[in-house]
Design brief:
It is built from 15 helices and 18 strands. Strands 15-12-14-13-17-18-16 form a 7-stranded antiparallel beta sheet, with helices on both faces. Keywords: FAD, Flavoprotein. Belongs to the FAD-binding oxidoreductase/transferase type 4 family.
Protein backbone atom coordinates (compact mmCIF):
# COMPACT_ATOMS: atom_id res chain seq x y z
CA UNK A 1 0.00 0.00 0.00
CA UNK A 2 3.02 2.31 -0.22
CA UNK A 3 1.84 3.66 -3.58
CA UNK A 4 -1.60 4.39 -2.11
CA UNK A 5 -0.11 6.22 0.89
CA UNK A 6 2.28 8.19 -1.32
CA UNK A 7 -0.64 9.36 -3.45
CA UNK A 8 -2.70 10.15 -0.36
CA UNK A 9 0.10 12.31 1.03
CA UNK A 10 0.28 14.09 -2.31
CA UNK A 11 -3.43 14.94 -2.18
CA UNK A 12 -3.48 16.36 1.36
CA UNK A 13 -1.27 18.71 3.38
CA UNK A 14 1.19 17.60 6.05
CA UNK A 15 -1.50 17.48 8.76
CA UNK A 16 -3.94 15.73 6.48
CA UNK A 17 -2.59 12.19 6.81
CA UNK A 18 -1.97 10.30 10.05
CA UNK A 19 -0.32 6.88 10.26
CA UNK A 20 1.03 4.51 12.88
CA UNK A 21 0.48 5.45 16.52
CA UNK A 22 -1.21 8.69 15.51
CA UNK A 23 -4.25 6.70 14.35
CA UNK A 24 -4.88 4.98 17.70
CA UNK A 25 -7.51 7.40 19.06
CA UNK A 26 -9.51 7.07 15.84
CA UNK A 27 -9.57 3.26 16.01
CA UNK A 28 -11.26 2.88 19.41
CA UNK A 29 -14.97 3.54 19.82
CA UNK A 30 -16.43 5.71 22.58
CA UNK A 31 -17.67 2.76 24.63
CA UNK A 32 -14.27 1.03 24.26
CA UNK A 33 -15.99 -2.07 22.91
CA UNK A 34 -14.50 -2.03 19.42
CA UNK A 35 -10.79 -1.72 18.79
CA UNK A 36 -9.79 -1.62 15.13
CA UNK A 37 -6.77 -0.69 13.07
CA UNK A 38 -6.39 1.64 10.12
CA UNK A 39 -4.13 1.92 7.12
CA UNK A 40 -4.17 5.67 7.76
CA UNK A 41 -6.42 8.53 8.80
CA UNK A 42 -7.20 11.09 6.10
CA UNK A 43 -8.21 14.56 7.31
CA UNK A 44 -9.35 16.59 4.29
CA UNK A 45 -10.22 20.29 4.48
CA UNK A 46 -12.81 20.56 1.70
CA UNK A 47 -15.38 18.62 -0.28
CA UNK A 48 -12.99 18.64 -3.23
CA UNK A 49 -10.32 16.96 -1.13
CA UNK A 50 -12.85 14.41 0.16
CA UNK A 51 -13.78 13.61 -3.44
CA UNK A 52 -10.11 13.20 -4.40
CA UNK A 53 -9.51 10.84 -1.47
CA UNK A 54 -12.59 8.76 -2.29
CA UNK A 55 -11.53 8.53 -5.95
CA UNK A 56 -8.11 7.33 -4.82
CA UNK A 57 -9.68 4.68 -2.58
CA UNK A 58 -11.96 3.55 -5.41
CA UNK A 59 -8.99 3.09 -7.75
CA UNK A 60 -7.04 1.06 -5.19
CA UNK A 61 -10.00 -0.83 -3.72
CA UNK A 62 -9.38 0.60 -0.24
CA UNK A 63 -12.33 0.55 2.17
CA UNK A 64 -13.42 3.88 3.70
CA UNK A 65 -14.68 4.39 7.26
CA UNK A 66 -16.20 7.90 7.54
CA UNK A 67 -15.80 9.44 10.98
CA UNK A 68 -17.01 12.63 12.63
CA UNK A 69 -16.54 13.09 16.37
CA UNK A 70 -16.03 9.34 16.97
CA UNK A 71 -18.97 9.34 19.39
CA UNK A 72 -20.81 6.39 17.84
CA UNK A 73 -22.45 4.19 20.46
CA UNK A 74 -22.73 1.14 18.17
CA UNK A 75 -19.25 0.91 16.67
CA UNK A 76 -20.44 2.56 13.47
CA UNK A 77 -17.30 4.67 12.95
CA UNK A 78 -14.67 2.10 13.97
CA UNK A 79 -12.66 0.08 11.42
CA UNK A 80 -12.13 -3.65 11.68
CA UNK A 81 -8.87 -5.14 12.93
CA UNK A 82 -7.36 -5.84 9.51
CA UNK A 83 -5.68 -2.46 9.20
CA UNK A 84 -6.68 -2.31 5.54
CA UNK A 85 -9.28 0.50 5.74
CA UNK A 86 -8.81 4.25 5.55
CA UNK A 87 -10.52 6.35 8.23
CA UNK A 88 -11.88 9.48 6.57
CA UNK A 89 -12.19 12.06 9.34
CA UNK A 90 -14.25 15.20 8.70
CA UNK A 91 -12.93 16.93 11.81
CA UNK A 92 -11.11 19.70 9.89
CA UNK A 93 -14.23 20.52 7.84
CA UNK A 94 -15.84 22.21 10.83
CA UNK A 95 -17.14 25.57 9.66
CA UNK A 96 -20.55 27.18 9.93
CA UNK A 97 -20.84 28.54 6.41
CA UNK A 98 -24.02 30.61 6.50
CA UNK A 99 -26.92 31.52 8.73
CA UNK A 100 -29.96 32.66 6.75
CA UNK A 101 -32.30 34.15 9.34
CA UNK A 102 -34.93 35.05 6.76
CA UNK A 103 -35.12 31.47 5.50
CA UNK A 104 -34.53 29.98 8.98
CA UNK A 105 -31.65 27.82 7.75
CA UNK A 106 -28.03 27.23 8.64
CA UNK A 107 -25.46 25.74 6.27
CA UNK A 108 -22.57 23.87 7.86
CA UNK A 109 -19.72 21.56 7.03
CA UNK A 110 -20.13 17.97 8.19
CA UNK A 111 -17.35 18.28 10.75
CA UNK A 112 -19.00 21.19 12.56
CA UNK A 113 -19.51 20.44 16.26
CA UNK A 114 -23.14 20.47 17.34
CA UNK A 115 -22.53 23.00 20.13
CA UNK A 116 -20.92 25.42 17.64
CA UNK A 117 -23.92 25.11 15.31
CA UNK A 118 -26.27 25.81 18.21
CA UNK A 119 -24.20 28.85 19.20
CA UNK A 120 -24.16 30.25 15.65
CA UNK A 121 -27.94 29.90 15.50
CA UNK A 122 -28.37 31.65 18.87
CA UNK A 123 -26.16 34.53 17.70
CA UNK A 124 -28.74 35.12 14.96
CA UNK A 125 -31.60 34.87 17.48
CA UNK A 126 -32.52 31.44 16.13
CA UNK A 127 -32.67 27.92 17.56
CA UNK A 128 -31.11 24.78 16.17
CA UNK A 129 -33.02 22.34 18.39
CA UNK A 130 -30.98 19.12 18.16
CA UNK A 131 -29.75 18.43 21.70
CA UNK A 132 -28.03 15.51 23.42
CA UNK A 133 -25.25 14.91 25.93
CA UNK A 134 -22.40 14.79 23.38
CA UNK A 135 -23.19 18.24 21.94
CA UNK A 136 -19.66 19.45 22.68
CA UNK A 137 -17.95 16.63 20.79
CA UNK A 138 -20.31 15.10 18.22
CA UNK A 139 -20.26 16.44 14.68
CA UNK A 140 -23.10 17.15 12.31
CA UNK A 141 -22.07 14.54 9.73
CA UNK A 142 -22.21 11.76 12.29
CA UNK A 143 -25.52 13.02 13.66
CA UNK A 144 -26.94 12.94 10.14
CA UNK A 145 -25.45 9.53 9.39
CA UNK A 146 -27.24 8.03 12.40
CA UNK A 147 -30.38 10.20 12.21
CA UNK A 148 -29.66 11.22 15.80
CA UNK A 149 -32.47 12.28 18.11
CA UNK A 150 -32.14 13.72 21.60
CA UNK A 151 -34.37 15.40 24.15
CA UNK A 152 -36.20 17.79 21.79
CA UNK A 153 -37.44 15.26 19.23
CA UNK A 154 -40.95 15.42 20.67
CA UNK A 155 -41.38 18.94 19.29
CA UNK A 156 -38.80 19.27 16.51
CA UNK A 157 -38.06 15.78 15.23
CA UNK A 158 -34.87 13.80 14.58
CA UNK A 159 -32.04 15.00 12.34
CA UNK A 160 -34.04 13.74 9.36
CA UNK A 161 -36.76 16.30 10.07
CA UNK A 162 -34.16 19.03 10.65
CA UNK A 163 -32.43 18.52 7.30
CA UNK A 164 -33.36 20.42 4.14
CA UNK A 165 -30.35 19.75 1.93
CA UNK A 166 -27.10 17.80 1.73
CA UNK A 167 -23.87 17.66 -0.20
CA UNK A 168 -22.50 14.12 -0.45
CA UNK A 169 -19.39 12.59 -1.97
CA UNK A 170 -20.46 9.31 -3.55
CA UNK A 171 -18.43 6.10 -3.60
CA UNK A 172 -17.35 6.98 -7.16
CA UNK A 173 -15.84 10.25 -5.94
CA UNK A 174 -18.55 12.32 -7.60
CA UNK A 175 -19.98 15.19 -5.58
CA UNK A 176 -23.78 15.32 -5.39
CA UNK A 177 -24.86 18.86 -4.57
CA UNK A 178 -28.27 18.82 -2.97
CA UNK A 179 -27.75 21.89 -0.78
CA UNK A 180 -31.25 23.27 -1.13
CA UNK A 181 -32.83 25.26 1.65
CA UNK A 182 -36.37 24.53 0.49
CA UNK A 183 -39.36 23.31 2.49
CA UNK A 184 -41.16 22.39 -0.72
CA UNK A 185 -39.29 20.67 -3.54
CA UNK A 186 -41.39 18.03 -5.28
CA UNK A 187 -39.02 17.24 -8.16
CA UNK A 188 -38.64 13.48 -7.97
CA UNK A 189 -37.08 11.24 -5.35
CA UNK A 190 -35.83 12.97 -2.21
CA UNK A 191 -32.28 11.62 -2.40
CA UNK A 192 -31.07 13.26 0.80
CA UNK A 193 -33.28 10.97 2.85
CA UNK A 194 -31.26 7.96 1.66
CA UNK A 195 -28.11 9.37 3.23
CA UNK A 196 -29.66 10.45 6.55
CA UNK A 197 -29.43 7.36 8.74
CA UNK A 198 -27.25 5.40 6.29
CA UNK A 199 -24.24 5.35 8.68
CA UNK A 200 -21.73 6.17 5.95
CA UNK A 201 -22.57 3.09 3.89
CA UNK A 202 -23.77 5.02 0.82
CA UNK A 203 -21.48 8.05 0.72
CA UNK A 204 -19.73 10.75 2.73
CA UNK A 205 -21.89 13.69 3.85
CA UNK A 206 -19.77 16.83 3.50
CA UNK A 207 -22.18 19.78 3.97
CA UNK A 208 -25.75 20.26 5.12
CA UNK A 209 -28.53 22.84 5.14
CA UNK A 210 -30.44 22.53 8.41
CA UNK A 211 -33.69 24.02 9.73
CA UNK A 212 -33.72 26.79 12.29
CA UNK A 213 -36.59 28.02 14.46
CA UNK A 214 -37.40 31.20 16.36
CA UNK A 215 -35.44 31.30 19.59
CA UNK A 216 -37.83 30.67 22.51
CA UNK A 217 -37.85 33.37 25.16
CA UNK A 218 -39.98 31.52 27.71
CA UNK A 219 -39.27 28.18 29.38
CA UNK A 220 -41.01 26.20 32.11
CA UNK A 221 -39.44 23.13 33.68
CA UNK A 222 -40.77 20.66 36.23
CA UNK A 223 -39.62 17.41 37.78
CA UNK A 224 -42.72 15.41 38.62
CA UNK A 225 -43.00 12.22 40.67
CA UNK A 226 -45.50 9.72 39.23
CA UNK A 227 -46.73 6.36 40.45
CA UNK A 228 -45.89 4.36 37.36
CA UNK A 229 -45.29 4.62 33.57
CA UNK A 230 -49.04 4.58 32.91
CA UNK A 231 -49.39 7.71 35.01
CA UNK A 232 -46.48 9.24 33.08
CA UNK A 233 -48.22 8.62 29.75
CA UNK A 234 -51.45 10.06 31.14
CA UNK A 235 -49.56 13.15 32.29
CA UNK A 236 -47.97 13.56 28.85
CA UNK A 237 -51.35 13.50 27.16
CA UNK A 238 -52.84 15.87 29.71
CA UNK A 239 -50.06 18.43 29.35
CA UNK A 240 -50.18 18.23 25.56
CA UNK A 241 -53.96 18.70 25.61
CA UNK A 242 -53.51 21.82 27.72
CA UNK A 243 -50.55 23.55 26.05
CA UNK A 244 -50.18 21.83 22.66
CA UNK A 245 -46.79 21.75 20.97
CA UNK A 246 -45.19 23.92 23.62
CA UNK A 247 -44.19 20.60 25.21
CA UNK A 248 -40.56 20.45 24.08
CA UNK A 249 -39.26 17.56 26.20
CA UNK A 250 -40.83 14.83 28.30
CA UNK A 251 -38.25 12.54 29.89
CA UNK A 252 -38.93 9.42 31.96
CA UNK A 253 -36.60 8.55 34.87
CA UNK A 254 -36.88 5.40 37.01
CA UNK A 255 -36.01 5.02 40.69
CA UNK A 256 -32.83 2.96 39.97
CA UNK A 257 -31.57 5.94 37.95
CA UNK A 258 -31.94 8.23 40.97
CA UNK A 259 -30.25 5.65 43.19
CA UNK A 260 -27.33 5.37 40.77
CA UNK A 261 -27.02 9.16 40.57
CA UNK A 262 -26.94 9.43 44.38
CA UNK A 263 -24.21 6.81 44.53
CA UNK A 264 -22.00 7.88 41.64
CA UNK A 265 -22.71 11.64 41.40
CA UNK A 266 -23.29 12.73 45.01
CA UNK A 267 -22.44 16.37 44.27
CA UNK A 268 -25.53 16.78 42.11
CA UNK A 269 -28.72 18.17 43.66
CA UNK A 270 -31.06 15.37 44.71
CA UNK A 271 -34.49 16.98 45.07
CA UNK A 272 -36.64 13.99 46.08
CA UNK A 273 -36.79 12.42 49.53
CA UNK A 274 -37.95 9.72 49.61
CA UNK A 275 -37.18 8.74 46.04
CA UNK A 276 -40.18 8.18 43.78
CA UNK A 277 -40.59 4.97 41.80
CA UNK A 278 -40.79 7.04 38.62
CA UNK A 279 -40.49 10.68 37.63
CA UNK A 280 -40.80 12.75 34.51
CA UNK A 281 -38.85 15.84 33.52
CA UNK A 282 -41.14 18.18 31.59
CA UNK A 283 -40.04 21.25 29.67
CA UNK A 284 -42.23 23.75 27.84
CA UNK A 285 -40.92 26.48 25.57
CA UNK A 286 -42.52 29.36 23.69
CA UNK A 287 -42.29 33.09 23.09
CA UNK A 288 -43.28 35.49 25.83
CA UNK A 289 -42.51 35.36 29.54
CA UNK A 290 -41.18 32.36 31.49
CA UNK A 291 -43.21 33.22 34.57
CA UNK A 292 -46.45 33.05 32.58
CA UNK A 293 -45.49 29.70 31.07
CA UNK A 294 -44.44 28.34 34.48
CA UNK A 295 -47.80 29.38 35.93
CA UNK A 296 -49.56 27.56 33.09
CA UNK A 297 -47.56 24.41 33.77
CA UNK A 298 -48.26 24.66 37.48
CA UNK A 299 -51.98 24.93 36.81
CA UNK A 300 -51.96 21.88 34.54
CA UNK A 301 -50.05 19.82 37.11
CA UNK A 302 -52.47 20.89 39.85
CA UNK A 303 -55.52 19.99 37.75
CA UNK A 304 -54.00 16.58 37.02
CA UNK A 305 -53.42 15.92 40.72
CA UNK A 306 -49.61 15.89 40.63
CA UNK A 307 -48.96 16.33 44.35
CA UNK A 308 -45.21 15.81 44.10
CA UNK A 309 -44.19 18.22 41.39
CA UNK A 310 -41.14 20.46 41.64
CA UNK A 311 -41.32 23.52 39.40
CA UNK A 312 -38.10 25.32 38.55
CA UNK A 313 -38.39 28.90 39.75
CA UNK A 314 -35.44 30.14 37.72
CA UNK A 315 -32.98 28.99 35.05
CA UNK A 316 -30.51 27.68 37.65
CA UNK A 317 -33.06 25.30 39.12
CA UNK A 318 -34.07 24.18 35.63
CA UNK A 319 -30.43 23.43 34.82
CA UNK A 320 -30.14 21.44 38.04
CA UNK A 321 -33.08 19.27 37.01
CA UNK A 322 -31.52 18.72 33.58
CA UNK A 323 -28.14 17.90 35.12
CA UNK A 324 -29.76 14.90 36.82
CA UNK A 325 -31.11 13.61 33.52
CA UNK A 326 -27.89 14.31 31.61
CA UNK A 327 -25.65 12.62 34.19
CA UNK A 328 -27.41 9.26 34.07
CA UNK A 329 -25.06 7.93 31.33
CA UNK A 330 -22.03 9.14 33.30
CA UNK A 331 -23.31 7.50 36.50
CA UNK A 332 -23.70 4.25 34.57
CA UNK A 333 -20.15 4.51 33.23
CA UNK A 334 -18.79 4.98 36.74
CA UNK A 335 -20.81 2.03 38.04
CA UNK A 336 -19.32 -0.40 35.52
CA UNK A 337 -20.32 -2.47 32.52
CA UNK A 338 -23.97 -2.71 31.55
CA UNK A 339 -25.78 -4.13 28.55
CA UNK A 340 -27.31 -1.17 26.76
CA UNK A 341 -30.34 -0.82 24.51
CA UNK A 342 -31.71 2.13 22.56
CA UNK A 343 -35.23 1.06 21.67
CA UNK A 344 -38.56 2.58 20.74
CA UNK A 345 -42.16 1.45 21.01
CA UNK A 346 -45.43 3.35 20.51
CA UNK A 347 -45.86 5.68 23.48
CA UNK A 348 -49.01 3.96 24.70
CA UNK A 349 -47.18 0.60 24.76
CA UNK A 350 -44.36 1.77 27.02
CA UNK A 351 -45.99 0.74 30.34
CA UNK A 352 -46.72 -2.80 29.12
CA UNK A 353 -43.25 -3.13 27.58
CA UNK A 354 -41.55 -2.06 30.80
CA UNK A 355 -43.64 -4.45 32.87
CA UNK A 356 -43.24 -7.49 30.61
CA UNK A 357 -39.58 -7.01 29.74
CA UNK A 358 -38.61 -6.36 33.35
CA UNK A 359 -40.49 -9.47 34.47
CA UNK A 360 -38.77 -11.67 31.89
CA UNK A 361 -35.32 -10.33 32.72
CA UNK A 362 -35.86 -10.91 36.44
CA UNK A 363 -36.90 -14.50 35.74
CA UNK A 364 -33.75 -15.07 33.69
CA UNK A 365 -31.36 -13.10 35.94
CA UNK A 366 -32.50 -12.61 39.51
CA UNK A 367 -29.74 -10.06 40.13
CA UNK A 368 -30.64 -7.86 37.16
CA UNK A 369 -30.95 -4.14 37.85
CA UNK A 370 -32.67 -2.24 35.06
CA UNK A 371 -31.78 1.39 34.39
CA UNK A 372 -34.69 2.64 32.28
CA UNK A 373 -34.90 6.27 31.21
CA UNK A 374 -35.30 8.40 28.15
CA UNK A 375 -37.57 10.21 25.77
CA UNK A 376 -41.05 9.05 26.77
CA UNK A 377 -42.64 11.73 24.62
CA UNK A 378 -41.45 10.09 21.39
CA UNK A 379 -41.42 6.49 22.60
CA UNK A 380 -37.62 6.15 22.84
CA UNK A 381 -36.18 4.47 25.93
CA UNK A 382 -32.61 3.78 26.97
CA UNK A 383 -33.00 0.40 28.61
CA UNK A 384 -29.84 -0.84 30.26
CA UNK A 385 -29.16 -3.91 32.38
CA UNK A 386 -26.65 -4.22 35.21
CA UNK A 387 -25.85 -7.39 37.13
CA UNK A 388 -23.73 -8.11 40.18
CA UNK A 389 -20.68 -8.62 37.98
CA UNK A 390 -20.06 -5.21 36.43
CA UNK A 391 -16.97 -6.17 34.45
CA UNK A 392 -16.73 -7.00 30.76
CA UNK A 393 -17.53 -10.60 31.70
CA UNK A 394 -21.14 -9.43 31.68
CA UNK A 395 -21.02 -9.40 27.88
CA UNK A 396 -21.20 -13.20 27.96
CA UNK A 397 -24.87 -12.76 28.91
CA UNK A 398 -25.51 -10.14 26.23
CA UNK A 399 -27.03 -12.48 23.61
CA UNK A 400 -29.62 -13.79 26.07
CA UNK A 401 -30.40 -10.31 27.44
CA UNK A 402 -30.74 -8.92 23.94
CA UNK A 403 -33.05 -11.73 22.89
CA UNK A 404 -35.37 -10.96 25.79
CA UNK A 405 -35.35 -7.20 25.27
CA UNK A 406 -35.64 -7.22 21.49
CA UNK A 407 -38.36 -9.88 21.50
CA UNK A 408 -40.40 -7.71 23.85
CA UNK A 409 -39.75 -4.71 21.63
CA UNK A 410 -41.00 -6.65 18.60
CA UNK A 411 -44.07 -7.86 20.51
CA UNK A 412 -44.95 -4.20 21.09
CA UNK A 413 -44.39 -3.13 17.48
CA UNK A 414 -41.16 -1.30 18.26
CA UNK A 415 -37.65 -0.82 16.89
CA UNK A 416 -34.35 -2.22 18.18
CA UNK A 417 -32.67 1.10 17.37
CA UNK A 418 -34.29 4.47 17.95
CA UNK A 419 -31.48 7.02 17.61
CA UNK A 420 -28.06 5.37 17.91
CA UNK A 421 -28.00 3.39 14.68
CA UNK A 422 -27.02 -0.19 13.90
CA UNK A 423 -23.25 -0.03 13.35
CA UNK A 424 -21.48 -3.25 14.28
CA UNK A 425 -23.38 -3.79 17.51
CA UNK A 426 -26.82 -4.61 16.10
CA UNK A 427 -26.25 -5.77 12.53
CA UNK A 428 -26.98 -9.41 13.35
CA UNK A 429 -30.23 -8.38 15.05
CA UNK A 430 -31.27 -6.27 12.08
CA UNK A 431 -31.53 -9.40 9.96
CA UNK A 432 -33.98 -10.84 12.49
CA UNK A 433 -36.17 -7.82 13.14
CA UNK A 434 -36.53 -6.34 9.65
CA UNK A 435 -38.40 -8.45 7.13
CA UNK A 436 -36.58 -10.04 4.16
CA UNK A 437 -38.10 -7.68 1.60
CA UNK A 438 -36.97 -4.61 3.55
CA UNK A 439 -33.43 -5.99 3.83
CA UNK A 440 -33.36 -6.92 0.15
CA UNK A 441 -34.43 -3.42 -0.87
CA UNK A 442 -31.82 -1.82 1.40
CA UNK A 443 -29.09 -4.03 -0.05
CA UNK A 444 -30.17 -3.09 -3.59
CA UNK A 445 -29.85 0.58 -2.69
CA UNK A 446 -26.41 -0.13 -1.24
CA UNK A 447 -25.42 -1.87 -4.49
CA UNK A 448 -26.53 1.09 -6.60
CA UNK A 449 -24.56 3.65 -4.59
CA UNK A 450 -21.57 1.51 -3.66
CA UNK A 451 -21.11 -1.36 -6.13
CA UNK A 452 -17.51 -1.94 -5.03
CA UNK A 453 -18.63 -2.17 -1.36
CA UNK A 454 -15.94 0.21 -0.11
CA UNK A 455 -18.14 2.50 2.00
CA UNK A 456 -17.99 1.61 5.70
CA UNK A 457 -17.98 -2.18 5.22
CA UNK A 458 -19.13 -4.37 8.10
CA UNK A 459 -21.69 -1.82 9.31
CA UNK A 460 -25.49 -2.17 9.27
CA UNK A 461 -25.50 -5.31 7.07
CA UNK A 462 -24.08 -8.76 7.72
CA UNK A 463 -21.37 -9.39 5.13
Amino acid sequence: MKIFLDELNYLLDAAGVLTGKDTAAYCLDQRRRYQGAALAVARPRSSTEVAAVVQLCARHGVAIVPQGGNTSLCGGATPDASGAALILSLERMNQVLEVDADNNTITVEAGAVLADVQAAARAANRLFPAEWAAAGSCRIGGALATNAGGVNVLRYGNMRELTLGLEVVLASGEIWNGLRGLRKDNTGYDLKQLFVGSEGTLGVITRAVLRLYPLPTAHATALVAVDDPTAAVDLLRGVQAAVGDRVTSFELISRPCFELLAKQCPNLPHPFSPLPEWAVLVELSDGGDSHVLTDQLAEVLHIMGCDHALLAQNSRQAKDFWRLREHIPEAQRREGVSIKHDISVPVGNIPAFLNECGHQLQLAFNDAVIIAFGHLGDGNLHYNVFRTDKTSALYADEPMVNDIVYSCVADHNGSISAEHGIGQLKRHHLAKYRNPLELALMKKIKQVFDPAQIMNPGKVFID
